[in-house]
Write a structure and sequence with these properties.
The structure holds two protein chains of two kinds. Chain A contains ten helices and no strands. By secondary structure, chain A is mainly α. Chain A has a single domain, classed as MetI-like fold, CATH 1.10.3720. Chain B starts with 7 loop residues before the first strand and ends with a helix. The chains are: A mainly alpha, B alpha/beta.
């Protein structure tokens, strides 16, 4: 039933798109089939796959860096008042710097390099992860800390089996909102200073006023992110939450 | 020295323990609280609720260091603790909860422990799937699995019905009989203390101190109603004497 509803909703979207393209004209909004054909052409030339791969790699690397550092900072700031006092001004500054400023400064200071691009994306994402995980670290259950203390559990066991499972929902929330933020910023970084990737291709298409190609890349990218969400993120969340009694 | 001339395993001398009161100022919860337990002895702290029994356990467990006095633990000082709440990690199975606390316990020892406590069929369950009675058993298994030098039990049977409480009490007696371990039990229930302990320490209301140290004769086999009544009236007499 729910699958059927989704298909009906998707069909409605395509129908609406088709109708709109009839009104606006093919130059402003090409029909779904024109976009589909462009997609096939890009795919058969190999360009689509190469650009998707370049973008996904940047997403993966900067996302991992931001998640790892943000979790570490957030945990430290949530558990230690001193770390919180020291780190908070940095957080406020980073949170309020527009993404574009960070990207442009990274390119100015480090050149149009891959390292600058990755750093800029990770820096944009980092404060959000830190804030979310800090919230989780502040709500850690003291009762479990005491239990771990009297049974003399090692630091590693405490982190792995006592602390991280309590942080898991916060980390999952940060990851979920983070993934969509990161790939959007990666496209901007590519547009501004990389010679490949989906963002670069969309930039080129923009200069050529090639709406068909813009939509083809956008569609391909959304499909890939949707696949990652259903095949990777959701099963992972289910695995992490398997100890919870099912609501039924 | 404890009875029998064996060196004390647990020697508690708390001169003073204050809590800051809500409206500022300090309130003494413990004052001149002193008692000792010998090797393998089971002691019970019995007192009115809210008198600071749990605070005594927390101090002995090293969870509260803000007090005047000294606490001497058994030689190696490995602790097995049963908190009032089971405090099981809900995201780990029963078996993993015990293993994480006792990584060096042998598979055979754990199997025997689970068997004694009637947990053999629940090893792969998550704590959320267990009743309170079963969760308490897991907490008890965890406390014994570390092969403690000192066992601390905070109201281990509270809010269980009488049948479950006596089952779990019997399991506890079996375990400490098989492997003698110095044990301190906190309870508000005199009968529970009599049926489990070798010595009962009666505590006063706040500030809390030991007002009587009543030895209970072994063996801990089932006593007749008359015998229970006799011990109870003896404890009552000691309480009145002190008060």
């Amino acid at each position: 039933m729910s699958v059927l509803l989704r298909l009906v909703s998707l069909g409605l979207m395509i129908a609406l798109w088709y109708a709109a393209s009839q009104v606006a004209g093919a130059r402003l909004l090409p029909t779904p089939e024109a976009v589909g054909l462009a997609l096939m052409a890009e795919a058969s030339s190999g360009a689509l796959l190469a650009n998707l791969a370049a973008t996904l790699l940047r997403v993966a690397v900067s996302f991992s860096i931001a998640m790892a550092l943000g979790t570490a900072f957030g945990l430290a700031m949530g558990r230690s008042r001193i770390a919180d006092r020291v780190g908070d001004p940095w957080l406020v500054v980073l949170l309020n710097l527009p993404a574009l400023v960070i990207i442009v400064l990274a390119y100015v200071w480090a050149g149009l390099t891959e390292a600058a691009a990755i750093t800029a994306v990770a820096l944009n994402k980092l404060p959000l992860v830190t804030v979310t995980v800090r919230e989780g670290a502040r709500s850690l259950d003291r009762q479990f800390d005491e239990m771990a203390q009297v049974f003399r559990m090692s630091a590693w066991v405490r982190l792995r089996h006592v602390v991280m499972p309590q942080l898991a929902p916060y980390i999952a929330a940060a990851a979920r909102s983070g993934l969509s933020l990161v790939w959007k910023i990666v496209l901007i970084v590519e547009l501004l200073g990389r010679p490949n990737g989906v963002g670069f291709e969309i930039g080129v298409a923009f200069q050529l006023f090639d709406v068909t190609r813009i939509l083809a890349y956008a569609l391909a990218f959304v499909a890939v992110m949707l696949a990652i969400e259903t095949l990777l993120v959701q099963p992972l969340e289910r695995h992490v939450a398997r100890w919870r009694p099912s609501p039924a | 020295m404890s009875p029998g001339g064996v060196p004390a395993q647990l020697d508690v001398r708390i001169a003073r323990k204050d809590f800051s009161a809500a409206l500022g100022g300090q309130r003494s919860v413990l004052a001149d609280l002193t008692f000792r337990l010998g090797y393998g002895e089971v002691g019970a702290l019995v007192g009115p609720s809210g008198c600071g029994k749990t605070t005594v356990l927390r101090i002995i467990a090293g969870l509260d260091r803000d007090y005047d006095g000294t606490v001497q633990l058994p030689h190696h000082g490995r602790l097995g603790v049963m908190f009032q709440e089971p405090r099981l990690l809900p995201w780990r199975t029963v078996e993993d909860n015990v293993r994480l606390a006792a990584p060096h316990a042998s598979a055979a020892a754990l199997a025997a422990l689970f068997e004694t406590l009637g947990l053999s069929t629940h090893r792969q369950n998550f704590p959320g799937e267990l009743s309170l009675g079963l969760a308490r058993r897991v907490a008890m298994a965890r406390a014994f699995a570390v092969e403690p030098d000192l066992l601390l039990l905070d109201e281990p049977f509270v809010s269980l019905d009488a049948a479950l409480a006596s089952q779990l009490g019997q399991a506890l007696v079996d375990l400490v009989t098989r492997n003698p371990v110095t044990t301190l039990l906190v309870t508000h229930d005199v009968d529970e203390a009599i049926s489990l302990a070798d010595r009962v320490f009666l505590l006063s209301a706040s500030p809390c101190r030991v007002i009587a140290d009543v030895p209970i004769e072994r063996p801990r086999t089932t006593r007749t109603a008359d015998e229970m009544a006799a011990i109870r009236s003896e404890i009552e007499r000691r309480r009145n004497q002190a008060g």
